[in-house]
């Protein structure tokens, strides 16, 4: 079953900024876990003077499970909540012709799988060092491109890239396609370390790849740069990353590279 929920958050008078920040951080982590579990589908801010009103689309087995999910939220005791039960409509474009139940609902007999969802985790802007060109090998032209620094920001975390532990080990094919073995270490503002490893591919027309090779500014829409990513961390409140499947979109910006990493939910 799906539910449309309106939240209005009221911070009690006298609450310290530290407690507000800690609860907001815990709420973001809890929301990410609900996304991964398939319970939180979408979230919107309502057009008000502030950020106190939020609209969410949730999925649960019933009101009992929904109440338990909402009751576990770190901001629950600051919330006023209005719940609207949703029912499938025969004209819903998410349903195929002839379907009479919700996608993934209990009457589907398990023959329908949930739609994947992408949630932005962070955007990394990293500076590049001078590439080390190993030359032609039996596997192709090998290059090592150091990532010398940078910062990352996201809805739930932010921090810096650590130099000396980060680089892109590339194999460049005869047509200019670059296969990346990208490994870097991030440190959050709280000091937590993230070990990030990606397998990537960058391809496009010969003219566009030549411009990239010369270090020119090329719009990311002119070529394809995608990654499959794993993240490992020992931080207990970020353990959901160890279990996550991530994909990335990349782009070169002169002597820098930008990655946007998404959780597949």
Description:
It is a single chain. The protein is mainly beta. It has 2 domains: 2-108, Alpha-Beta Plaits; 118-264, Porin (Beta Barrel). Helices cover 14% and strands 44% of the residues. It has 3 helices and 14 strands. It has helices at residues 17-37, 63-71, 206-213, and strands at residues 2-9, 40-45, 53-59, 79-86, 118-128, 132-137, 140-153, 158-161, 167-172, 178-188, 193-203, 224-232, 246-252, 256-264. A hairpin with a 3-residue loop joins β13 (246-252) and β14 (256-264). It is elongated. 22% of the residues are buried.
List strands and helices in order, with pairings:
Layout: E1 2-9, H1 17-37, E2 40-45, E3 53-59, H2 63-71, E4 79-86, E5 118-128, E6 132-137, E7 140-153, E8 158-161, E9 167-172, E10 178-188, E11 193-203, H3 206-213, E12 224-232, E13 246-252, E14 256-264
Antiparallel strand pairs: 1-3, 1-4, 2-3, 5-7, 5-14, 6-7, 7-8, 7-9, 8-10, 9-10, 10-11, 11-12, 12-13, 13-14
């Amino acid at each position: 079953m799906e539910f449309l929920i309106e939240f209005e958050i009221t911070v009690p008078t006298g609450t310290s900024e530290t407690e507000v920040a800690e609860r907001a951080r815990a709420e973001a982590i809890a929301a990410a876990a609900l996304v991964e579990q398939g319970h939180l589908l979408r979230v919107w801010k309502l057009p008000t003077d502030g950020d106190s009103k939020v609209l969410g689309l949730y999925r649960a087995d019933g009101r009992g499970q929904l109440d338990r999910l909402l009751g576990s939220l770190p901001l629950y005791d600051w919330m006023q909540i209005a719940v609207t039960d949703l029912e499938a409509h025969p004209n819903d474009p998410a349903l195929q012709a002839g379907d009479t139940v919700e996608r993934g609902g209990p009457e589907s007999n398990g023959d329908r799988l949930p739609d994947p969802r992408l949630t932005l985790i962070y955007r990394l802007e990293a500076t590049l060092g001078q590439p080390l060109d190993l030359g032609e090998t039996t596997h192709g032209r090998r290059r090592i491109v150091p990532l010398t620094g940078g910062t990352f920001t996201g809805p739930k975390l932010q921090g810096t890239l650590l130099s000396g532990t980060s680089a892109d080990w590339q194999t460049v094919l005869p047509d200019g396609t670059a296969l990346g073995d990208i490994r870097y270490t991030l440190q959050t503002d709280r000091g937590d370390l993230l070990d990030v490893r990606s397998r990537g591919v960058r391809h496009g027309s010969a003219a566009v790849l030549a411009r990239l090779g010369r270090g020119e500014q090329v719009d990311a829409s002119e070529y394809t740069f995608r990654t499959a990513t794993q993240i490992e961390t020992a931080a207990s409140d970020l353990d959901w990353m160890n279990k996550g499947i991530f994909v990335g979109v990349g782009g070169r910006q002169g002597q820098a590279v930008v990655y946007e990493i998404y959780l597949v939910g």
